[in-house]
Amino acid sequence: MNEMKIVVLLKFFRGELNPFDGAALECALEYGGEITVISMAPPSVEEPLKNIARLGVRAILISDPAYAGGDTQATSYVLAKAIERLKPDAVFAGRQSMDGDTAQVPPMLAQRLGMRIVTGVMEFDRGNIRTRNGAKALLDSDTIFTFERIRTLRFPSVFSPRGTVEKWSQADLSLDETLCGMQGSPTRVLRSYESAIGRRKCEFFNATDFDALIKNALAKRASTAVQPISCQTECIYYVGNIGNIARQYAKTVIPLEAHGKSAEAFSDELRALHAKTVLFEANEEYRILAAKSAVVLGAGLCADCISFREENGLFVMTRPAIGGNVTADIVSASDVAFATVRPTEMGREELIFSVGKGAVAYLDQIQALAIQYGAGLTCTRTVADGGILPYQCQVGVTGKTVSPKLYVAFGISGAVQHTSAISGAQAVLAINADKDARIFDYSDYGIVCDIKNLFEEK
C-alpha cells in the first residue's frame, strides 16, 4: 500500500506559527506518510520554515509581490493551484488563524479542488477522527481536514540536519494575476479603528461589594427601550436564525432555505433572485456554504460581522480584525456581498459567570460560586482552545452571543471579539487585576483585584 501524501497548510502571525496549524502538522507527523508543508507568506517566514523542515517534511514557501494583500478568495486561489501541483491525498489545516480568524480558506479550497471537508477535528488517533460536533470520520483521500488546537507541535531533534525550503513564486506558478493579491480580492478594508460597540461607563467598587453588586443588578427591571431600526439597505436575503438581525439593516428581508443544498444549487438560486446582499447564520453548515458559494459566484465574504450600515451607496460590513482590539469596516467590490453573523442566544440565564485566561487557576471556586448564585458558566476563546472548558461555553464572535441581566467577567482582558458578543447584556461586572484592562471600558461595574482576593473576601 502506498503511503498517504498529506499537505499541511501553515500560517505565521507576528513570526509565530498559528497553533491550530501546529496541531494539524503534529497530527500529520503522528500518522506518517509523505508530508509537505506550504506557507503563503513574506520572505521573512523562510527561517522559521527551515526549522519546521528539520522535522523531516518537505517545506514550500509561496511568496511573490503579486500575491500580497489578498483576501481569502485570492489566497484560496493561489493555494489551490499550488496544491493541484502536489496532488495530495489529503490536506490538513488549522480550524482558524489567530489574526484573520475567518475559517474561510479551507472550505474555499474544498470547493476549488473538488474535495470533501471535515471541520473541527477534536480527536485524532491513527486516522480515526472525532469532530467538534461529535461526528466520527476516517482519514480518507480527497478530503480537507481542519484541526482544533488538540496538539502541540514537537521540537526538532538536536541531531536533525538543517532544513531547506523550496520557494515558489509567480515565475513558477504562472497564475492569473487578476485573481491574485489585492487585484483578485473582492473585499476591501475601508478603515480600521477601536470599536465603540458595547462601550459603557464603569463605576469601580471593592471586592467586598461583589455580592451586593450581583443582587442589585438582578433586582433591576429589564430595560424596555427598543433599539431603533436603521433600514438603510433596500433588501437583504438571509440564511438561518438571524432574521431579527437582518431586519435592523434593510427595508425588505427575505429568508432563504439552504439546509442541505450544494454551493452550486444555492448559487444558481441567488443568481435567479439577483441577490445583492446575503447574510448567513455563522453555524458550521452555513459557514461552509457561504465560503463555497462565494467561490462559485466570486463574491466578497466577510466573517463574523458585528454590525452593518450603508455608506455612500456601499454595504459596509464591520468585524473584529488583526486578532486584537480593533474592528475593520469592509466592503465588497463584487456583484453580491456575503457576510456571516452570530445570532444572539437569549437563553434562560439572567446571570452568567465567564472565565478568562486570568481566572483559570480559580476555575473550581468560580464554578462553586456559579452554583451558589444559580449562574450559567461561560468562557473566552483562549480558555476553550486550551481545553479547560468545552467550546459550547465559549462567548465571542466565534462562539455564542449572550444577553443576560448581568454578565460577570472573571479575569477577561476584553478583546473586541469578546466584548462585541456581550453588548446585549443589561449590565456587565468585570473583575481584573489590571486596572487598565480593556474590559473595564465595556463594563458597568468594576473590581480591580486579583481573583484570589475576591474569594478571600467571601
List keywords for this structure.
458 residues; alpha/beta; Rossmann fold
How would you summarize what this structure contains?
By secondary structure, this protein is α/β, with parallel strands linked by helices. It is 25% helix and 30% strand.
Give your account of this protein's structure.
There is one protein chain. The protein is an alpha/beta fold and 458 residues long. The chain has 13 helices and 28 strands. Strands 9-8-7-10-6-1-4-5-11 form a 9-stranded mixed sheet, sandwiched between helices. Strand 26 (406-410), helix 12 and strand 27 (427-432) form a beta-alpha-beta unit.
What is the arithmetic mean of pLDDT? 92
The CATH homologous superfamily of the largest domain: HUPs
**How many domain units?**
3
CATH architecture call of the largest domain: 3-Layer(aba) Sandwich
Biggest sheet details: 9 strands, mixed
- Distinct helical segment count: 13
**Proportion of helical residues:** 25-40%
CATH topology of the largest domain: Rossmann fold
Strand content: 25-35%
Span between N and C termini? 64 Å
How many individual β-strands? 28
Low-confidence segments, given as residue ranges, are none
In the sheet with the most strands, the strands line up as: 9-8-7-10-6-1-4-5-11
What is the overall shape?
A: globular
Structural class by helix and strand composition:
alpha/beta
**CATH class of the largest domain, please?**
Alpha Beta
Topology diagram in text:
Elements: E1 5-9, E2 12-13, E3 16-17, H1 19-31, E4 34-40, H2 46-53, E5 58-62, H3 72-86, E6 90-94, H4 105-113, E7 116-125, E8 128-131, E9 136-138, E10 143-147, E11 166-168, H5 170-173, E12 187-194, E13 203-205, H6 210-219, E14 233-239, H7 243-246, E15 250-256, H8 263-273, E16 277-281, H9 284-297, E17 300-302, E18 307-311, E19 314-321, E20 326-332, E21 337-341, E22 344-345, E23 351-355, H10 363-373, E24 376-379, H11 381-385, E25 401-402, E26 406-410, H12 416-419, E27 427-432, E28 445-448, H13 451-457
Parallel strand pairs: 1-4, 1-6, 4-5, 5-11, 6-10, 7-10, 13-28, 14-15, 14-16, 16-21, 17-21, 22-25, 23-24, 23-26, 26-27, 27-28
Antiparallel strand pairs: 2-3, 7-8, 8-9, 12-20, 18-19, 19-20
